[in-house]
């Protein structure tokens, strides 16, 4: 393990001055990423509060007002202050390295573009800051002195800010609009800088034909921003004038509320591609590195990116099919909305072809890239349905739209951000993260995303209206499933944050500038060459060369079996062996555990009737025998499989020590689920028996798996511990 980083007070002061005055493109890129991460956590907390509220059909956790405030600010925070800043940060850090530039074209303007964002976020979310501050001060200060603070309230007008709701008196709405306007200025400044840098600062050896795919996507994205964001700024100023100076741009007697919708969505739909195209650029850049193949159809992916940029300005009115727009106009927008799916499909086919017959490696970026393709396919197909006028009229106001939209903004955009963080982490920090934790975190993130937003699609298919704080009780089951998925997403994000921070201080320093073995497939791109030079200068790490290389446009191995069955068979055999050993261990452990529970029944501290309650949870009759059968089935399937999945991250080997740790963790759930009101000494005895019975289960489970030769902890290779 490498020496950990340590800082003193003088170092902190020096760092504060450095980071607040820097014009270095890499440092500004990290500032963007840090800011976007903070905004993502803030907006993510809003999302968790929304999903927690929807666990029950009635508004018995938050009020309807609070719910409306949450989904208003969740949407604006995530779209404006999370996604674009993170992609701008990635672009700031890596784009000059990729094109051989010394820095961004306008370094000081680059710094200004970033430092406009923190005050814009503070303005936009001033309502909750003032409200919380006022509530705290009210404990010691008379409320009369806090009237200014308490007058602010988070807007509850929806993230689209449609008039006349956005014309309602609330001083915080003015600050929200000012914050959005300021963020638009910052984004436009950044876009101009990217365009200028790509056009004028490229190395002489880099032309349009060999410009990397991520830079192409940032160029098209920045071009969209230059045309879209000034319009948003104008529309926001008009709304501010209506609110404060008596103009009638969006009033019934003036331009009308529909004018806002036209202006908003003329920005809003290109905004979808502003946050989508950088993600596809990262996909096209990262995926080939982990499948050992050159990106298939480079030119066509570039053409499709340009086509999306152009068509994105011709589809805005498909958000307005239910507003009574002229049928002939609606038909034209339906045609363009369907047509824009074609360049997106080109990207998907090229990504899949890139993987074909490649040397696909199991790594966190691989899991995230391949999963993103799958989720994006579902999101894209559902989008085509919504582009059809009769279908959209039915589903426009339902959760179907929420599911479709979030499969895009969650199913590929954050996933590619995580993939980029894992791919470039050694380059940024000079250290390696915990790869096994990264694989588990990535898998959990994908499962949580699919579970949440596919469930929302199902709710929309059942025509449950969106935006409501309450809903009919028959939808509660699916809402609970969606909330469970959302919390899986939240847990996975915390795992990623822990891995990034812990590895920065404790991760082992990299000993090569080619941690992903890119030289072996001739994909050692310019940013890694820069990193190689830096390692040699600063740490004396000599460049390395692979034992053998192959061009990335040829198959991974000439003798690779072509049969899909022959590729899946060994994996299926391993899974079957592990599952079989787990089932046997679970059966043996559950039988041993049952003996301990019978002793608890004899002592009067455990009630067998709880097994009958267990049966009713899955719709079976309240029968003790059926409940115990279900208990036995879970002990043979769910808990062993979870143990086999999580065992590598528990202390000790995959034997008795790990089994005891695992059993201790799951005992808490059993204690809560089977609690029947015991108190005093009876409660203490009940808890003791719960712990003892689970320890016996854990020993039986782990011991049987070990005896049968089931899954063992992988040996820690040098590469994995780097």
UniProtKB/TrEMBL annotation:
The keyword Transmembrane helix is annotated on this UniProt entry: yes
Subcellular compartments: Membrane
What is the protein's name according to its record? Answer: Cytochrome c oxidase subunit I
Per the record, membrane topology reads:
Multi-pass membrane protein
Where do transmembrane segments lie in this chain? 28-50, 70-95, 116-139, 175-200, 220-241, 273-291, 300-319, 331-350, 362-389, 401-425, 437-462, 477-498, 583-606, 626-647, 659-677, 683-708
**Residue stretches making up the Cytochrome oxidase subunit I profile domain:** 13-516
The record's GO molecular-function terms, alphabetically, read: cytochrome-c oxidase activity; heme binding
BP-aspect Gene Ontology terms: aerobic respiration; electron transport coupled proton transport; respiratory electron transport chain
Q: Which UniProt keywords apply?
A: Electron transport, Heme, Iron, Membrane, Metal-binding, Respiratory chain, Transmembrane, Transmembrane helix, Transport
Q: Which GO terms describe its cellular component?
A: membrane
**Which family does the similarity line name?**
Belongs to the heme-copper respiratory oxidase family.
- Chief location of this protein within or outside the cell: membrane
């Amino acid at each position: 393990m490498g020496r950990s980083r340590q800082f003193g007070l003088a170092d902190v002061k020096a760092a504060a001055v450095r980071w607040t005055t820097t014009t270095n493109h890499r440092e500004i890129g990290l500032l963007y990423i840090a800011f976007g991460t903070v905004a993502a956590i803030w907006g993510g907390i809003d999302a968790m509060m929304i999903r927690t509220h929807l666990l029950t059909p009635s508004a018995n956790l938050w009020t309807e007002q609070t719910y409306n405030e949450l989904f208003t600010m969740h949407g604006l925070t995530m779209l404006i202050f999370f996604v674009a800043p993170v992609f701008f940060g990635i672009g700031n850090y890596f784009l000059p390295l990729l094109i051989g530039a010394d820095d961004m074209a306008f370094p000081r303007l680059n710094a200004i573009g970033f430092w406009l964002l923190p005050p814009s976020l503070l303005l936009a979310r001033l309502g909750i800051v003032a409200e919380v501050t006022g509530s705290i001060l009210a404990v010691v200060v008379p409320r009369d002195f806090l009237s200014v603070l308490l007058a602010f309230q988070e807007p509850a007008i929806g993230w689209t800010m449609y008039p006349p709701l956005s014309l309602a008196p609330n001083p915080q709405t003015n600050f929200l609009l000012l914050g959005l306007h300021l963020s638009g200025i910052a984004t436009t400044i950044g876009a101009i800088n990217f365009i200028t840098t790509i056009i004028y600062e490229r190395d002489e050896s880099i032309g349009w034909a060999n410009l990397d795919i991520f830079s192409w996507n940032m160029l098209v994205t920045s071009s969209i921003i230059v045309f879209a964001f000034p319009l948003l700024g104008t529309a926001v100023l008009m709304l501010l004038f209506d609110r404060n100076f008596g103009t009638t741009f969006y009033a019934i007697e003036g331009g009308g509320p529909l004018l806002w919708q036209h202006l908003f969505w003329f920005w809003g739909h290109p905004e979808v591609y502003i946050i989508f195209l950088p993600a596809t650029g990262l996909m096209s850049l990262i995926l080939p590195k982990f499948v050992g193949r050159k990106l298939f159809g480079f030119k066509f992916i570039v053409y499709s990116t340009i086509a999306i940029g152009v068509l994105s300005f011709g589809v805005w009115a498909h958000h307005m099919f239910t507003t009574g727009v002229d049928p002939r106009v609606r038909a034209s927008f339906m045609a363009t909305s369907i047509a824009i799916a074609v360049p997106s499909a080109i990207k998907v086919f090229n990504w899949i072809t890139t993987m074909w017959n490649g040397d696909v490696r199991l790594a966190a970026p691989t899991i995230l890239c391949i999963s993103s393709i799958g989720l994006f396919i579902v999101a894209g197909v559902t989008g085509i349905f919504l582009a059809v006028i009769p279908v959209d009229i039915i589903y426009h106001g339902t959760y179907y739209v929420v599911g479709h939209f979030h499969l895009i903004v969650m199913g590929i955009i954050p996933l590619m951000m995580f993939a980029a963080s894992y791919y470039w982490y050694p380059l940024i920090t000079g250290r390696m993260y915990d790869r096994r934790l990264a694989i588990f975190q990535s898998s959990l993130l994908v499962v949580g995303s699919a579970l949440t937003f596919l469930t929302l699609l199902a709710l929309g298919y059942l025509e449950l209206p969106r935006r409501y704080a309450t809903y009919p009780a028959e939808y509660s089951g699916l809402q609970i499933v969606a909330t469970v998925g959302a919390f899986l997403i939240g847990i996975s994000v915390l795992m990623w944050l822990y891995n990034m921070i812990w590895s920065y201080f404790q991760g082992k320093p990299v000993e090569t500038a080619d941690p992903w073995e890119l030289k072996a497939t001739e994909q050692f791109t310019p940013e890694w060459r820069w990193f190689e030079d830096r390692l040699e200068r600063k740490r004396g790490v000599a460049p390395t060369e692979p034992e053998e290389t192959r061009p990335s446009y040829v198959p991974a191995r000439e003798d690779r079996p072509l049969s899909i069955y022959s590729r899946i068979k060994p994996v299926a055999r391993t899974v079957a062996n592990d599952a079989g050993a787990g089932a046997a261990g679970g059966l043996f452990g559950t039988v041993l555990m049952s003996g301990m529970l019978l002793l608890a029944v004899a002592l009067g501290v455990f009630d067998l009737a709880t097994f009958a309650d267990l049966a009713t949870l899955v719709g079976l009759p309240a029968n003790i025998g059926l409940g115990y059968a279900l208990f036995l089935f879970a002990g043979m399937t769910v808990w062993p499989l979870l143990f086999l999945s999580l065992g590598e991250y528990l202390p000790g080997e995959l034997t008795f020590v790990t089994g005891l740790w695992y059993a201790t963790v799951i005992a808490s759930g059993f204690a809560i689920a089977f609690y029947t009101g015991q108190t005093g000494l009876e409660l203490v005895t009940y808890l003791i028996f719960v712990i003892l019975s689970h320890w016996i289960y854990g020993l039986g489970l782990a011991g049987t798996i070990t005896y049968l030769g089931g899954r063992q902890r992988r040996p820690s290779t040098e590469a994995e511990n780097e």
